[in-house]
Specification:
It is a single chain. The protein is of the alpha/beta class. It has 4 domains: 79 residues, Arginyl tRNA synthetase N-terminal domain (Gyrase A, domain 2, 2-Layer Sandwich); 156 residues, Rossmann fold; 90 residues, no CATH class; 111 residues, Isoleucyl-tRNA Synthetase, Domain 1 (Orthogonal Bundle), CATH 1.10.730.10. The protein contains 21 helices and 13 strands. Helix 18 packs parallel to helix 21 and helix 20 runs antiparallel to helix 21.
């Protein structure tokens, strides 16, 4: 079904087109009314007319009968207030829709999302948090509208370090090395291998020879490499499960997956006349990129020693995702420092014809996670903070908060709830921040049940469910009418109608903080409603109408939280 903003925008567009075809009404939410259309001001400047006179002419052509009332304000603003009958009609339609107004994608598109990307034989740390939770939220958004989502976890599983890691595995003994990796002590394994490489020339020579054997396809070397990869994948899967992330082992397509395609990438770029030799390396110089001195900037596809870098692998991945997977949209959820790299890769892929104009390809960049000192988050000893350790600490704090709040039930149930709250705290703090910005990781604030936090939204959901349980209402049928006589009642109804638009804005911008902002506003609207309006003690038919508003609120919060990858508990 059409959203409220779509209906208004279409009616306004018709009126504006009568005055100046194609002019933008500039429809926005408003604090003075439900919406405000500001387009008359810019249009008046373009036409050399008085804004208020032009706005009056637009109003004369505007048909909003039965939908809204329009008031001309100020220099030419159009304040739009939805009618009671229209609100009633839209809310009843929403209440009867299992999808809560979210339209299925038409046509269904294939969306490839590249996210998380840890390294084999290294533990996942706080630097992987943002890519993982942002990417997973965007995947859930696309699945909700029915698109075909293909997750790609581009893990680092190839290259020079693996000669060192395989030789360390051999020195330790395969059984002992596998046991160390199996318990998740990947960091120690990697550090020990690096220490041996730095200290022992013979070990370095063996490591370099092992890299050659790996790239040449030596069966025994490949077997040992696969053992390292499999142990790491098992560890990654454990982290994803604990975070409540939908990535699976089948989604992993590491650097090694494209190794056999790299020579073809170079050959095809050469055949297209795009390759240029530069200091022994083979490069492409895409237009529009320059260094600090204004000189053309190269994308190095093949290094002077004949090896391939990240650019070749990423170009191979682009071509594979477009030609084999049939991607209509590709999202790369990778940190902001990689912005130039991906811009150049996409530019070269388009020059080569591997990335058609019809395919949307976007680098979904994000900022850093900071400590209390506003520097990169580190342990007290200055080391990298492991994701598992962050989650464990959040669980401990959430469990303590539940005890302090007098949580009932057995210890196992409380612990399970603490895990849900901890995931909500960590994910929501990340997702509610505009992704290009850095944010400070503050667990005390994150696990709070008050303020703009994940636990607050979970608690709001449980409050609504509690009302419905006390009413004995497992499901609530749409009422014959939503009167919405009280201001707080009307405000909640308006907020509920905004859910499809909030989801659409999140999709269009790849900005999960927009969805978070909507859910927080909805929770606040419900709190104001609950404080101002009796529900269980209200006379009929008001009681039924307000219970239906509660049911809609609970369903919307649950759907919204699930879209962010956050559980919506029934009780807290």
């Amino acid at each position: 079904m059409e959203t409220v903003s779509e209906i208004l925008a279409a009616r306004l567009q018709t009126a504006f087109d009568r005055v100046a075809p194609g002019a933008d009404p500039v429809l926005r939410p408003s604090e003075r009314a439900d919406f405000q259309a500001n387009g008359a001001l810019a249009l008046a400047r373009a036409l050399g007319r008085a804004p208020r006179d032009l706005a009056q002419e637009i109003c004369a052509h505007l048909d909003l009968a039965g939908v809204a009332e329009v008031e001309l304000a100020g220099a030419g603003f159009l304040n739009v207030t939805l009618s009671a009958g229209f609100l009633d009609e839209r809310l009843r339609a929403l209440a009867g829709d299992a999808r809560l107004g979210v339209r299925p994608a038409d046509p269904v598109r294939t969306v490839v999302i590249d996210y998380s990307a840890p390294n084999v034989a290294k533990e996942m740390h706080v630097g992987h948090l943002r890519s993982t939770v942002i990417g997973d939220a965007l995947a859930r958004v696309e699945r909700l509208v029915g698109n075909r989502v293909i997750a790609r976890n581009h893990v680092g599983d190839w290259g020079t370090p693996f000669g060192m890691l395989i030789e360390h595995l051999i020195d330790q003994g395969e059984d002992a090395g596998s046991a160390e990796l199996a318990v998740g002590d990947l960091t120690a394994f990697y550090q020990d291998a690096r220490a041996a490489f730095d200290a022992d020339e013979a070990f370095r020579e063996r490591s370099r020879a092992r890299v050659v054997a790996l790239q040449a396809g030596d069966p025994e070397t490949r077997r040992l490499w696969r053992l390292l990869v499999d142990q790491s994948v098992a560890y990654f899967s454990e982290v994803y499960a604990r975070l409540g992330v939908t990535l699976r082992s089948e989604d992993i397509r590491g650097e090694s997956s494209y190794n056999d395609d790299l020579a073809g990438v170079v050959a095809d770029l050469d055949a297209l006349g795009l390759l240029v030799d530069s200091d022994g390396a083979r490069c492409v110089f895409p237009p529009g990129f320059a260094n600090r001195d204004g000189e053309p900037l190269p994308l190095i596809v093949q290094k002077r020693d004949g090896g391939f870098g990240y650019a070749a692998t990423d170009l191979a991945a682009v071509r594979d995702r477009v030609t084999r997977l049939g991607a209509d949209t590709m999202l790369y959820v990778v940190g902001t420092p990689q912005a130039q790299h991906f811009s150049m890769v996409f530019a070269v892929a388009r020059l080569a014809g591997w990335l058609p104009d019809a395919v949307r390809c976007e680098h979904v960049a994000f900022g850093n996670v900071l400590g209390a000192d506003h520097k990169m988050l580190k342990t007290r000893s200055g080391g990298t903070v492991k994701l598992i350790d962050l989650l464990d600490e959040a669980i401990a704090r959430a469990d303590q908060a539940l005890v302090e709040r007098g949580a009932t039930g057995d210890e196992a149930s409380r612990r399970a709830l603490a895990e849900q709250i901890a995931r909500a705290a960590i994910k929501y703090a990340d997702l509610s921040t505009e992704r290009q910005r850095d944010y400070v990781f503050d667990l005390e604030r994150m696990v709070a049940f008050e303020g703009d936090t994940g636990p607050y939204l979970q608690y709001a959901h449980t409050r609504v469910r509690s009302i419905l349980r006390r009413a004995g209402a497992t499901t609530v049928a749409p009422p014959a009418r939503f009167a919405l006589d009280e201001p707080a009642e009307r405000a909640l109804g308006r907020a509920l109608l905004d859910w499809p638009d909030a989801l659409a804005a999140t999709r269009a911008s790849a900005q999960p903080h927009r969805l978070c902002g909507y859910l927080f506003s909805l929770a606040q609207a419900f709190t104001a409603f609950y404080e101002a309006c009796a529900v269980l003690g209200a006379p009929e038919p008001v009681r039924t109408q307000r219970l239906a508003l509660c049911d809609l609120t609970a369903r919307t919060l649950a759907q919204g939280l699930d879209t962010l990858g956050i559980e919506a508990p029934e009780r807290m």
